[in-house]
Protein backbone atom coordinates (compact mmCIF):
# COMPACT_ATOMS: atom_id res chain seq x y z
CA UNK A 1 0.00 0.00 0.00
CA UNK A 2 1.15 3.53 -0.73
CA UNK A 3 1.72 5.51 2.44
CA UNK A 4 1.42 9.29 2.25
CA UNK A 5 3.84 11.35 4.30
CA UNK A 6 7.56 11.78 4.72
CA UNK A 7 10.17 14.44 4.13
CA UNK A 8 9.70 16.92 1.28
CA UNK A 9 11.98 19.92 0.73
CA UNK A 10 13.22 19.80 4.30
CA UNK A 11 9.78 19.81 5.94
CA UNK A 12 8.20 16.83 7.59
CA UNK A 13 4.73 15.86 6.36
CA UNK A 14 2.42 13.98 8.71
CA UNK A 15 1.97 10.31 7.91
CA UNK A 16 -1.57 9.83 6.68
CA UNK A 17 -1.55 6.08 6.43
CA UNK A 18 -2.54 4.18 3.29
CA UNK A 19 -3.77 6.28 0.39
CA UNK A 20 -7.46 5.58 -0.27
CA UNK A 21 -8.31 7.78 -3.23
CA UNK A 22 -11.27 8.13 -5.55
CA UNK A 23 -11.00 9.42 -9.11
CA UNK A 24 -13.65 12.12 -9.43
CA UNK A 25 -15.35 14.07 -12.17
CA UNK A 26 -18.40 16.20 -11.38
CA UNK A 27 -19.41 16.55 -15.04
CA UNK A 28 -21.67 17.48 -16.67
CA UNK A 29 -22.45 21.02 -15.68
CA UNK A 30 -25.09 22.35 -18.05
CA UNK A 31 -25.45 25.91 -16.76
CA UNK A 32 -24.06 28.73 -18.92
CA UNK A 33 -22.24 30.05 -15.86
CA UNK A 34 -19.98 27.00 -15.98
CA UNK A 35 -17.86 28.52 -18.71
CA UNK A 36 -19.66 30.28 -21.52
CA UNK A 37 -21.22 28.49 -24.46
CA UNK A 38 -19.92 25.10 -23.49
CA UNK A 39 -19.64 23.89 -19.90
CA UNK A 40 -16.16 24.24 -18.46
CA UNK A 41 -14.18 21.09 -17.76
CA UNK A 42 -12.90 22.79 -14.62
CA UNK A 43 -15.10 21.08 -12.05
CA UNK A 44 -13.57 22.95 -9.12
CA UNK A 45 -15.43 26.12 -10.05
CA UNK A 46 -18.09 27.40 -7.68
CA UNK A 47 -20.71 26.72 -10.37
CA UNK A 48 -20.19 22.98 -9.73
CA UNK A 49 -20.65 23.31 -5.95
CA UNK A 50 -24.15 21.84 -6.10
CA UNK A 51 -22.38 18.58 -6.89
CA UNK A 52 -19.30 18.65 -4.64
CA UNK A 53 -20.36 21.12 -1.95
CA UNK A 54 -22.44 20.99 1.21
CA UNK A 55 -25.26 23.06 -0.34
CA UNK A 56 -25.81 20.26 -2.89
CA UNK A 57 -25.31 16.51 -2.87
CA UNK A 58 -21.89 16.93 -1.14
CA UNK A 59 -19.87 14.41 -3.14
CA UNK A 60 -16.71 15.19 -1.16
CA UNK A 61 -18.32 14.38 2.19
CA UNK A 62 -19.78 11.19 0.71
CA UNK A 63 -16.30 10.10 -0.44
CA UNK A 64 -14.84 10.83 3.00
CA UNK A 65 -17.72 8.92 4.59
CA UNK A 66 -16.86 5.91 2.43
CA UNK A 67 -13.31 5.97 3.83
CA UNK A 68 -11.45 7.94 1.15
CA UNK A 69 -8.64 10.26 2.21
CA UNK A 70 -7.84 11.61 -1.27
CA UNK A 71 -9.63 12.70 -4.41
CA UNK A 72 -7.91 12.48 -7.80
CA UNK A 73 -9.17 14.94 -10.41
CA UNK A 74 -9.25 14.32 -14.15
CA UNK A 75 -8.49 17.94 -15.00
CA UNK A 76 -5.77 20.30 -13.89
CA UNK A 77 -6.49 23.12 -11.49
CA UNK A 78 -7.64 26.18 -13.39
CA UNK A 79 -6.60 25.35 -16.92
CA UNK A 80 -7.53 28.44 -18.96
CA UNK A 81 -9.80 29.68 -16.13
CA UNK A 82 -9.06 32.73 -14.01
CA UNK A 83 -11.48 31.89 -11.18
CA UNK A 84 -10.78 30.78 -7.63
CA UNK A 85 -10.82 27.13 -6.61
CA UNK A 86 -10.77 28.01 -2.92
CA UNK A 87 -14.31 26.73 -2.26
CA UNK A 88 -13.50 23.22 -3.52
CA UNK A 89 -10.08 23.09 -1.87
CA UNK A 90 -11.41 24.41 1.45
CA UNK A 91 -14.27 21.91 1.45
CA UNK A 92 -11.91 19.05 0.56
CA UNK A 93 -9.67 20.03 3.49
CA UNK A 94 -12.67 20.31 5.82
CA UNK A 95 -13.79 16.79 4.89
CA UNK A 96 -10.26 15.37 5.31
CA UNK A 97 -9.55 14.79 1.62
CA UNK A 98 -6.20 15.43 -0.04
CA UNK A 99 -6.52 16.70 -3.63
CA UNK A 100 -4.47 15.31 -6.51
CA UNK A 101 -4.87 17.48 -9.58
CA UNK A 102 -4.81 15.94 -13.02
CA UNK A 103 -2.47 16.83 -15.85
CA UNK A 104 -3.57 17.75 -19.34
CA UNK A 105 -1.64 16.02 -22.09
CA UNK A 106 -3.46 17.47 -25.09
Keywords:
two-stranded antiparallel ribbon; alpha/beta
Write down how many β-strands occur, each being a DSSP E stretch of 2 or more residues: 5
Strand order across the largest sheet: 3-4-5
The end-to-end distance, rounded to whole angstroms, is 31 Å
Count of helical segments? 3
Q: Label the overall shape.
A: globular
Mean pLDDT: 76
Low-confidence stretches: 1-8
- Structural class designation: alpha/beta
Question: What is the alpha-carbon Rg in Å?
Answer: 15 Å
- Strand content is 15-25%
List the quaternary state of the chains: single chain
Percent helix, as a range, is 10-25%
Q: Note the main sheet.
A: 3 strands, parallel
Series of secondary-structure elements, N-terminal to C-terminal: EEEHHEHE
Describe the structure.
The protein contains three helices and five strands, in the order βββααβαβ. With 106 residues, the protein is an alpha/beta fold. Strands 3-4-5 form a three-stranded parallel sheet, with helices on one face. A two-stranded antiparallel ribbon has the order 1-2. Strand 4 (70-73), helix 3 (86-94) and strand 5 (98-100) form a beta-alpha-beta unit. It is globular. The protein starts with a strand and ends in a 6-residue tail after the last strand. Residues 1-8 have low confidence and may be disordered.
What can be said about this structure in brief?
By secondary structure, the chain is of the alpha/beta class.
Give the SSE map.
Layout lengths: L2 E6 L2 E8 L2 E4 L24 H4 L6 H7 L4 E4 L12 H9 L3 E3 L6
Parallel strand pairs: 3-4, 4-5
Antiparallel strand pairs: 1-2
Amino acid sequence: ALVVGGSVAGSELPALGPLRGIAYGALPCTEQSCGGQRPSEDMLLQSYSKQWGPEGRDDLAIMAGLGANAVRLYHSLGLDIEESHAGFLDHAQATGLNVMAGFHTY
